[in-house]
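Marked as duplicate of an earlier ticket. Keeping the data here for the record.
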Amino acid sequence: WRPLPPTFFSCPDMGHQEVVMAGATPLRAVKSGEKPPRRARVKAAKPKTLVEAIEGGDYLEILEAQRRDVVAALPAEKGPAKAALHRQLSILSKEIRDLKEAAVDGEGSVVANTEDEAWDGTGY
């Protein structure tokens, strides 16, 4: 008897198989004075202005641009105007969150959106 290599497995339908596993890059000690290679930085896309978002027609982008404008205007305001901007910011943030959650739940969801049915007592 000898142990099987970790690349060997048995499948009842397909018999015995040997597969090549993807290996990780081996680790090594760092040499004195050695520096890590520079990684390419991914530049974030510049957020659209409100005008650009409206021209693009994407409702979520419009809401996000409005929220940025409200946040930028907040420090300069005082009293009732500041309170109104805070309220508007809260409304915009909730709507953005709801739209993003709906986008995630929509396509890849395993939950069926069906009508409620009367339970007949069976099904256990």
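See parent ticket for discussion. Helices lie at 50-56, 59-73, 79-107.
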